[in-house]
């Protein structure tokens, strides 16, 4: 019985230690489509270095543009494939509802990986204050 309790305590301790090794990062994106390739590459590089990280990309203002269907930068680069690949690795992409309303953008034009949140700025604050996310502004 004593050995069983020790084994359970060890397993719980290991699980807690593993959970503590996960870094939670919120990328705050409010810059236009011309910065998207660099931002997505930074996220990919970060996951390659630390595959267990939890990454959330929160967009508002011009930052939502790369999450629109058929979005391209001035070099003709599209983002849907890279967004899809990152989402498959666990990255969440969140879009500000206020921005959609202000800019009269139909939510149906967003990539399927994008989740709408009420406010991009409030989402960044919530992730930092209530869920312990580290803030990155690429």
Task: Give a written overview of the molecule.
The protein is α/β, with parallel strands linked by helices and 138 residues long. The chain is 43% helix and 17% strand. It has a single domain, classed as Hypothetical Protein Ychn, Chain: A, CATH 3.40.1260. Helix 4 links the parallel strand 3 and strand 4. It is globular and about 40 Å long.
Architecture per CATH nomenclature, i.e. the level-2 architecture: 3-Layer(aba) Sandwich
Number of β-strand runs: 5
Order of helices and strands: HEHEHEHEHE
CATH topology: Hypothetical Protein Ychn, Chain: A
Rg, please? 18 Å
Terminal Cα separation, in Å? 53 Å
Average pLDDT figure: 90
Provide the β-strand percentage band: 15-25%
Ranges where pLDDT stays below 50 over 5 or more residues in a row are: 13-17
Concise summary:
43% of the residues lie in helices and 17% in strands.
What key attributes describe this structure?
single chain, 138 residues, alpha/beta, Hypothetical Protein Ychn, Chain: A, 5-stranded parallel β-sheet, 5 helices, 43% helix, 17% strand
Layout of SSEs?
Layout: H1 2-20, E1 24-29, H2 36-49, E2 54-59, H3 80-88, E3 92-96, H4 97-102, E4 114-117, H5 120-131, E5 134-136
Parallel strand pairs: 1-2, 1-5, 2-3, 3-4
């Amino acid at each position: 019985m004593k050995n069983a309790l020790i084994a359970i305590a060890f397993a719980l301790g290991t699980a807690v230690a593993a959970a503590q090794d996960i870094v939670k990062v919120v990328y705050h994106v409010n810059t236009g489509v011309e910065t998207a390739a660099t931002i997505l590459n930074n996220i990919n590089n970060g996951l390659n270095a630390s595959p267990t990280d939890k990454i959330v990309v929160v967009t508002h203002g011009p930052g939502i543009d790369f999450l629109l269907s058929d979005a391209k930068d001035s070099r003709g680069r599209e983002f849907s494939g890279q967004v899809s690949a990152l989402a498959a690795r666990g990255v969440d992409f969140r879009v500000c509802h206020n921005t959609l309303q202000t800019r009269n953008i139909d939510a149906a034009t967003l990539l399927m990986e994008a989740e709408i949140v009420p406010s991009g700025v409030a989402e960044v604050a919530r992730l930092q204050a209530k869920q312990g996310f580290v803030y990155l502004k690429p």
